[in-house]
Design a protein that fits this description.
The complex is a heterotetramer of chains A (511), B (709), C (490) and D (103). Chain B is mainly alpha-helical and 709 residues long. Chain B contains 27 helices and 4 strands. In chain B, a hairpin with a 2-residue loop joins strand 1 and strand 2. Chain B is globular. In chain B, 59% of the residues are buried. Chain C has one domain. Classes of the chains: A mainly alpha (511), B mainly alpha (709), C mainly alpha (490), D mainly alpha (103).
Chain lengths: 511, 709, 490, 103
């Protein structure tokens, strides 16, 4: 495929899941296993296509949009159907497709009551289109549509296959995110009319930026900020996250942590910063402070959790805090770090949720106290995997978690946009507290490992036959496990791809 | 000559390879994977020896740096993966591979029958790799990576027996304490690299940082802040007070691990890093003073703690803390070479002692010296090797420990001569501590080997695989000292080995001490037991303003001080013999003191006084106080911090998260519901009320319209 | 005076159809009576064809009383489309509930004739007649279930409030006539521009005129009839009231406000804006409490009226206001189209569920997904669309309103936007409540599978597809450069 | 002639009608009150017509009044029908008995 002309490839890769979802709904519900297989097949084909795209992507021009499609869509409001892909979109797009495939594979064996694989898989595929679209849409309206599109399927996923408090959690998730994104829509419209160029094209708007008075930029940024910050989630907008994660079915949590949260940070980087640089510059210190609060705060909350899954959910708050810290740095290194953190967190936490899910399937509880340790004895392989991923998540070098965190702190030491002069001290403080956050992070993960993994299994599990990692789990986990290591050892895999694109972006930023 | 140095990366790669192979196929092999590890380390060891030789004989050499751009970091900055081979690297390579190799061989027998035998060797390989990665790092980021990885391995190996709660706690404690220090390290590295922005694309490159610092391109803030933060990392990693608390607990790990990680290599990483960045350290008097003081405190009180231990490994652990104190202190008083020299020799004899201890423990199935005794007969090889190790540790003349420790003292003396008060502090306290060291080692040796056996198991000598390493290490514990003695040539010797283009003979400290201005070279000439700078030449070259040169040149004999050391040594030895020579005293030594004092009345009153007014207070009161402060105060603080954090966590979660923030959301929802409840009452169902409201509304609106203009 | 029959052809066709329906009803017996429905549908299609031919033309007849321009044509098409849908969802319902079918369809058609007149009227008298032609048949239709207490009660309420507001409006009209000496809208505009534009009494009577339309669109505080009437009336009638007659009300409001009272737009603009805020907030908040689906839809449609009022709140006066007003009208028109599509659909599903069982409380929708996936899917789509979820036309409707606000951002505009945002979030509370019940609750045992029947399924499917297609390609209907013709008149 | 008299009368009638609609319990009386209001409007129209265009052939006002009379008739017819129906169902014509549906 020639990345300059093969826009169709991206379109197909994007809408194949949607079509697949439609096809699935036509299958009779009785064909349970066939449906699950079909789900795998669809996502696999999609993933194959994405791999082809990744392969034929022209990395020498990673800074420019490739696989572009740009056709009129809603002429009345100049909205265009414009897709494209650059070094920033590619990794996230790839990750989305991969995770969905793995989730589909996982679903072939594991699906919480009330079953209904048809509905579940269709929703998942719909969700995939939404998520993937967000990362390749280069028209504000189109972006918004995809961004919002993810709400509905996720609402149903949580609401139908979720845990005991699913009603509460699903509605909370839906309304919370909706609330933010409507303000975002208002801000988009304000931007559109302020720019007065009759275009929603992200690239054009970025090139035109900065426009409008600082006041305008501040307000517009506030609107966009609300939308994305709730999605990320930035402290104190995070309270929907633990409930959603805890109640969601395993696959839901994986996709939620793996991709949905990333849409927020991606939005910041792709839209908020380049289009509203002045507003960004004004908000940066606040974002930084919130980010670091999130880091420390998330870690503290983790220490207080008694439920494994909820603990992991809160750990996301902390990790996304590092991502936001990178964004708050407003310089190339920071954005690189943020994007890397995005990917790393997606893989690692996604994997953690997989593990938590199968832990729940084996023990039928997620209470740390009830599990009571000894997992390394009961399920050696599983225990090792758990330790491995947990250690990756606490940011150990050589594994994916490290680069996002370290680079974020490193970038924050000398923030861009002239922030270094006015806020140098503040940022130094931020770095220090972020670093302290890493200690707390290590703290709760080690404590978790100690309470769940180590020691002798308590009586109630002693003669309980608990199956170790099964084949299907291996299949759906190995790619992630491998990626955790690969990204840790070859950060270039992501940093390298993004480099040129980030440079352009910061060019818009004037930083 | 570079031919061999080019292959330094192989030394690093082999242990990793062995770790991978062992994990992959180890279980299937007859030796359960140990043979892979031993083979790999053997090759690494030979290579390391070759590299050491190359760098030593040709010293001083031009450092060899090889790096690949590993990944862009954004902003045009690059993270490079590379090797930097100079004297310092070679020293560390040699030390690490040697000890690791020995430990591999030793463990093969020692760990026999362990359920996680293979895993153990894989971990050893991984650790060795990480340590070497840190050692050969040409940039700080890579060093940090190695640093963190050794921490992980340490965690995994301390928790090797993870069924036991105490071991788990020890592992967590070790990891978290060091991790806390890593905050300092990481931020410090970041600060330093930030100072390099604009100067280079590789802001972590060590050589560039050193040159920049020497050329004064780094702001004082950068240097002081950065180095102090990095030093925090060293404090935790190298068991300096008050963050040493994890090291004694770390003895929960298997003894070979203690020997390799918690005596010879990992704990010295901090000192290594300080030495690596010595050109930066040397820029700031404040930083050096801080380092020196921390070192002094540690070396003295750490030593005292060893006095009252019964667990042999704990004794060695505290002595390790104390010796690390010497190294740090040396850095703090400009003893760049001295510090590394002591690190080098200490690595050998402390590993020897630990492995010896392991051999003993293996024999009696107990860590406590009170369960040993009379082992000399049963375990002759262990016995004499242990003696050698102890002598070296105690600094008995002509052992390696003697030369290296005296180098440290000399450095302190020179520093004092240059008018820095920390110098004399290091000198005198170091001297006093050597007395303590001798005493507790002697105590241990007597209780272990002298008297009758108190063991429940009939002791037996360990097999060849365990004794062999002991012997080799014993030889090294003597020989390694001769790299820098009054007998050494001008070059090559240990000091020229460590010299780099920046730290050459001409290199001097940018600041001068108080008394140094009118000080002539002569007075600056330290007269330690072995004074540095026998020939005043380097000092003269160091400039007439009395600036102190970083390298001290070859030391020379100073018999008066030598006598003093010997007196200290033997008095300590004698005292120890008095109390413990006949095996473990049945009754409390203090009561025994009573009978002792009666003898003093008639002949030994001098001893008695010495005993009553020096030993008793020191051993019982002071050390007890120190123990208390360590085990209760500092531990208490650490534990307290832990508990406080937990409480804070719970509070934050319960109150802030669940009530304030979430409550706000719910509040909104509830208020909506509340309004809803109230508002729906308007829909009374009575059409005439509707009509009334309708008309009223209309009238209101009409009025509003009418009033609009 | 010469009459342009082409211009009023749709109305004529519909009138003839109505008479034919009446005749047919007399002719047919028993079950055969239900076949007046396709007859009516046939006439409607004819009217649609006639209307389409009028697109793009500009016809004036009955003096200047009656104008057919794109604005009018678009509304007529909207009404006729709705009529078709309502016929579709009425058939079985009316046939099975055994009430006077002929009369029902006759009244339905008559009411729609009134609606067709509404957007073309350019004269107060014409507007009044149109309004009454819409209302009077509706009064009867609401009470059509004669033996049903609820039905008659709702009819009474509807009737009393209707005539009351009509009387208020007429009083206002008479006053306006007194001030301006004319009932011609353009003439009125001409007359009240200038200093007369600030006579309190005149402004007051302007408000009185608006009351009549406020009643039709059920804006707070004229909304009280809506919930009681909807829940009492036969559901198809409720749908008709909620969609068609509401749209008619908006059409009339737009005409009278933007043509006749354009000079005082800066007076009624803000006040209608405040009404908008009140309407949507009250509607949504009360809707939160509802247990009965029809009442929930009623309050939701009150809230929707609030959204649609927002653009009126933006109206300005003066020549430079044209662009803002144009955007406002576009938003209104588009929202009405979207609203018609999704709301008729929702009522359609409600009919299907209620028809046999008579169950209408939200709890009775539990497990609908199992009883009839199609209906469940439809309900989900319609409700989500009402809420404004992506890929449904509802999002674009709200988008259009925000866009109208953003054309020229004012503080008042921002306030309105904020209320819109908060309200659409609140609204999701109860929409999602229904959706959850439909999908996530277990169906009570013993409930039969639902057979909605062909027409109704067809309508639901068509509307559902419409909702989604417009959700992806709103461009199909968003392009109304021409509907703003009435602004030019202002 | 002076318009004051008729206008005041109209206003009075209208207010009386409004009062009746709101206050009277008997549905028939309510209907009559509606009639009052509509006729008040008629008086208004006719008055204005004669005030503005005395002796003018263009008689918009009267036209409007005629329409209103016609429509009013229709409305009252419907209204009575509804009231009768209610009377049949519940043997009462009190409007405020009709409060089955609320909230």
């Amino acid at each position: 495929m020639d990345p300059n002309t093969a826009g169709w490839a991206l379109v197909v890769a994007l809408f194949l899941p949607l079509v697949g979802a439609g096809a699935l709904t036509l299958m009779p519900s009785s064909m349970d296993r066939e449906i699950r297989r079909a789900g795998v097949a669809i996502t696999a084909v999609g993933f194959a296509l994405v791999v082809a795209i990744t392969a034929s992507f022209d990395y020498s021009r990673a800074g420019e949009l490739q696989f572009t499609t740009d056709v009129p869509w809603i002429t009345a409001i100049d909205a265009r159907f414009s897709l494209g892909m650059d070094g920033i979109s590619l990794p996230l797009f790839f990750l989305t497709s991969l995770l969905t495939l793995l989730c589909a594979i996982y679903t072939t064996k594991h699906l919480p009551s009330p079953g209904k694989p048809k509905a579940f898989l269709s929703l998942m595929l719909l969700l995939q289109t939404g998520m993937a679209g967000t990362f390749v849409a280069f028209d504000l309206i189109l972006f918004f549509i995809f961004f919002e599109l993810t709400l509905v399927p996720m609402f149903f996923m949580i609401g139908m296959w979720g845990g005991p408090r699913r009603d509460y959690a699903s509605v909370k998730f839906f309304l919370y995110t909706l609330f933010g994104s409507v303000f975002m829509l208002v801000a988009f419209l304000a931007i559109y009319f302020q720019a007065g160029a009759n275009t929603w094209s992200i690239m054009e708007l970025s090139t035109m930026a900065p426009f409008g008075s600082t006041t305008f930029q501040t307000w517009a940024f506030l609107g966009v900020f609300l939308g994305f910050a709730i999605k990320v989630p930035v402290w104190p907008f995070h309270t929907w996250l633990p409930d959603a994660h805890t109640e969601a079915p395993t696959v839901g949590s994986v996709l939620l942590a793996g991709v949905l949260l990333k849409m927020g940070t991606y939005g910041f980087i792709r839209i908020a910063l380049p289009i509203l640089p002045d507003g960004a510059a004004r908000f940066a210190p606040m974002i930084g402070v919130l980010a670091v609060i999130g880091i420390v705060y998330g870690a503290l909350c983790c220490l207080a959790q008694t439920d494994v899954k909820r603990l992991i959910a809160f750990s996301s708050v902390g990790h996304m805090g590092f991502v936001m810290l990178g964004i708050a740095a407003m310089n190339e290194a920071g954005i690189q770090a943020a994007l890397f953190g995005n990917i790393a967190h997606g893989i690692i936490t996604g994997m953690l949720f997989f593990l938590a899910g199968s832990m729940h399937e084996r023990y039928h509880t997620r209470e740390i106290a009830v599990i009571g340790g000894g997992m390394l004895k009961k399920m050696p392989v599983y225990g090792v995997l758990f330790t491995y991923v947990a250690i990756a998540s606490l940011g150990l070098p050589g594994l994916a978690g490290f680069w996002g965190e370290f680079a974020a702190m490193w970038a924050a030491i000398s923030p861009g946009l002239g922030l270094a002069d006015s806020y140098g001290g503040l940022y130094l403080g931020l770095v220090v507290f972020a670093a302290i956050g890493t200690v707390l992070t290590a703290g709760y993960f080690l404590w978790l490992i100690q309470r769940v993994n180590l020691g002798e299994p308590p009586e109630r599990w002693a003669d309980e036959p608990l199956a170790d990692v099964q084949a299907i789990e291996w299949v759906s986990w190995l790619p992630l496990l491998a990626l955790i290591l690969a990204l840790g050892i070859f950060p270039r895999l992501v940093f390298g791809v993004q480099d040129a694109a980030v440079t352009n972006l910061v060019g818009f930023l004037g930083g | 000559m570079d031919a061999l140095l080019e292959y330094a990366w192989v030394v690093v790669a082999l242990p990793l390879l062995s770790a991978v192979l062992i994990t992959a196929v180890g279980k299937q092999l007859p030796g359960k994977g140990s043979e892979i590890g031993i083979a790999a380390l053997g090759i690494s060891w030979l290579l390391a020896i070759g590299i050491a030789w190359e760098t030593f004989v040709n010293s001083p050499i031009e450092p060899l740096e090889r790096a690949v751009d590993w990944s862009p970091l954004g902003g045009g900055f690059v993270f490079e993966l590379g090797i930097l081979v100079d004297g310092l690297t070679a020293v560390m390579l040699l030390l690490v591979t040697t000890v690791s190799f020995m430990v591999h061989i030793y463990s093969r027998e020692y760990m026999k029958g362990e359920p996680r035998y293979t895993y153990f060797f894989a971990m050893l390989g991984l650790f060795t790799f990480s340590m070497l990665l840190l050692v050969v790092a040409n940039n700080l980021l890579q060093a940090v990576i190695g640093w963190e990885l050794v921490g992980l391995c340490s965690y995994l190996l301390i928790g090797f027996y993870w069924e036991g709660k105490s071991n788990q706690d020890a592992a967590n404690k070790a990891f978290l304490t060091t991790k806390f220090g890593d905050v300092g390290l990481i931020v410090g590295v970041i600060v330093l690299s930030a100072g390099m922005f604009g100067l280079t694309d590789t802001p972590f490159n060590i050589i560039e940082i050193n040159e920049a610092a020497f050329a004064g391109q780094l702001s004082t803030t950068t240097i002081v802040l950065g180095m102090l933060l990095i030093f925090l990392g060293c404090i935790s990693k190298s068991g300096q007070m008050p963050l040493h608390v994890w090291l004694p607990d770390a003895m929960a790990g298997p003894t070979p691990v203690s020997a390799l990680i918690h005596a010879a290599t990992m704990v010295t990483a901090g000192i290594f890093l300080l030495a690596r960045l010595f050109p930066v350290v040397a820029q700031s008097q404040a930083v050096m003073a801080t380092i020196a003081i921390v070192g002094v405190i540690t070396l003295f009180f750490g030593g005292l703690l060893a006095l009252v231990q019964d667990d042999l490994k704990k004794i060695l652990a505290y002595s390790t803390i104390s010796q690390l104190g010497y190294m740090v202190a040396a850095i703090g008083v400009g003893g760049y070479a001295a510090s590394i020299f002591h690190l080098f020799t200490h690595g050998f004899f402390k590993a020897l002692l630990f492995l010896g201890a392991g051999s003993l423990i293996h024999a009696v199935h107990s860590n406590n010296i009170s369960d040993m005794g009379g082992m000399a007969r049963a375990m002759p090889h262990t016995f004499w090797t242990f003696i050698v190790g102890s002598l070296a540790l105690a600094g008995f003349p002509l052992t390696a420990g003697f030369f290296s420790k005296e180098e440290v003292l000399a450095a302190g003396d020179i520093w004092a001569g240059a008018g820095f008060f920390t110098g004399s502090l290091v000198f005198w306290v170091g001297l006093a501590a050597s007395f303590v060291t001798t005493f507790y080692m002697a105590r241990a040796v007597f209780l272990i080997f002298a008297g009758e056996s108190r063991s429940h198991h009939p002791p037996h000598e360990s097999g060849k695989l365990m004794v062999g390493p002991l012997m080799l290490l014993a030889v090294l514990s003597i020989a390694s000292g001769y790299l820098l003695t009054p007998m050494s040539p001008e070059a090559p010797n240990f000091e020229t080995w460590l010299a780099t283009p920046i730290l050459d003979e001409e290199a001097t400290f940018p600041f001068t001490g108080d008394g140094a201005t009118e000080a002539s070279p002569g007075t600056v000439t330290g007269d330690g037991v072995l004074a540095g700078a026998a020939s005043p030449a380097p000092l003269a070259a160091a400039g007439e303003d009395g600036a102190v040169s970083i390298l001290h040149g070859v030391p020379y004999w100073n018999l008066t001080k030598l006598a003093m050391v010997l007196v200290l040594f033997f008095s300590a030895l004698f005292l120890a013999w008095r109390f413990y020579g006949k095996g473990l005293p049945e009754r409390d030594p203090t009561l025994q003191m009573g009978g002792f004092s009666r003898a003093l009345v008639n002949k030994y009153g001098f001893d008695d006084a010495g005993y009553r007014y020096i030993v008793v207070p020191v051993r019982d009161k002071l050390s007890a106080a120190a123990t208390y402060s360590s085990n209760v105060l500092i531990d208490g603080v650490v534990a307290g911090v832990g508990r406080a954090t937990k409480h804070a966590a719970v509070a934050t979660y319960r109150v802030v998260d669940q009530q304030v923030i979430d409550g706000g959301i719910h509040g909104a929802a509830f208020s909506a519901a509340w309004w809803s409840e109230k508002l729906k009452r308007i829909q009374s169902g009575d059409v005439q009320k509707y009509a009334g409201v309708l008309v009223a509304g209309t009238i209101l609106l009409v009025l509003a319209f009418a009033a609009a203009r | 005076m010469q009459i342009d029959f082409i211009a009023i052809l749709p109305e004529i066709i519909l009138t003839v159809t109505a008479l034919l329906v009446l005749a047919a009803d007399l002719a047919l017996r028993g079950d055969a009576k239900q076949f007046v429905n396709p007859l009516a549908a046939l006439g409607t299609v004819g009217a649609i064809v006639a209307t389409v031919t009028l697109w793009g033309s500009e016809r004036v007849t009955f003096g200047t009383m009656y104008v057919v321009d794109d604005f009018a044509v678009l509304f007529k098409l909207l009404f006729l489309g709705t009529l078709l849908a309502i016929l579709g969802i009425s058939w079985r319902y009316v046939a099975e509930n055994r009430f006077f079918q002929g009369e029902y369809y006759f009244l339905l058609l008559t009411s729609f004739i009134g609606m067709l007149l509404m957007p073309s009227s350019r004269d107060l008298i014409m507007l009044f007649i149109a309004l009454e032609t819409v209302s009077v048949p509706a009064f009867v239709m609401v009470g059509m279930r004669k033996r049903d207490l609820y039905s008659s009660e709702s009819a009474l309420k509807f009737f009393l409030l209707g005539v009351l507001s009509a009387a208020l409006m007429l009083f206002g009209m008479s006053m306006v006539y007194g001030f301006t000496g004319t009932t011609d809208l353009v003439g009125i505009a001409a007359a009240i521009s200038g200093e007369t534009a600030s006579v309190p009494l005149l402004l007051g009577s302007v408000m009185l005129v608006l009351v009549g339309f406020g009643f039709k669109i059920s804006a707070v505080p004229f909304h009280f009839w809506a919930p009681d009437t909807y829940s009492g009336a036969p559901i198809p009638v409720a749908a008709m009231l909620a969609v068609a007659s509401k749209a008619a009300g908006f059409a009339g409001l737009a005409v009278v406000a933007f043509i006749a009272f354009e000079p005082v737009a800066d007076v009624w603009g803000p006040i209608l804006g405040v009404l908008a805020v009140l309407t949507m907030s009250v509607g949504n908040l009360i809707a939160l409490q509802q247990r009965d689906l029809i009442r929930l839809l009623a309050y939701s449609s009150v809230a929707q009226a609030g959204y649609i009022l927002i653009p009126f709140g933006l109206a300005r006066t003066g020549p430079e206001a044209a662009v803002v007003n144009a955007a406002a009208i576009e938003a209104v028109v588009f929202y009405l189209i979207a609203y018609a599509v999704m709301n008729v659909g929702a009522f359609g599903v409600a009919i299907a569920v209620e028809r046999r069982t008579g169950l209408r409380s939200i709890a009775d929708y539990a497990g609908l997904s199992a009883r009839s996936p199609l209906l469940a899917m439809g309900m989900t789509v319609f409700l989500l669309s009402l809420g404004g979820a992506p890929l449904t036309v509802g999002l674009w409707a709200k988008f259009a309103i925000i866009e109208a606000i953003a054309v020229d951002i004012t503080l008042f505009g921002i306030v309105l936007a904020a209320f819109l945002v908060v309200n659409s979030v609140i609204a999701f509370f109860y929409y999602l409540k229904v959706v959850r019940t439909v999908w996530m609750d277990e169906a009570p045992a013993g409930l039969p599978k639902l057979q909605p029947g062909f027409n109704l399924s067809a309508v639901v499917v068509v509307l559902m597809v419409g909702t989604l297609v417009l959700g992806v390609l709103p461009g199909l209907v968003t392009d109304f450069s021409s509907v703003i013709s009435i602004v030019a008149a202002g | 002639m002076s318009p004051i008299g008729p206008l005041v009368l109209a206003a009075f009638l209208f207010s009386a009608g409004v009062y009746g609609v709101i206050a009277r319990r008997n549905a028939v009386l309510v209907l009559i009150s509606v009639e009052l209001m509509l006729n008040a409007v008629n008086i208004n129209l006719v008055t204005f017509q004669n005030l503005l265009f005395p002796g003018d052939p263009a008689v918009t006002g009267q036209m409007f009044a005629l329409f209103i009379i016609g429509v009013a008739a229709a409305e009252v017819g419907v209204g009575l029908a509804i009231v009768f129906n209610m009377f049949r169902n519940r043997a009462s014509v009190d409007v405020d008995d009709a409060d089955l549906m609320r909230w």
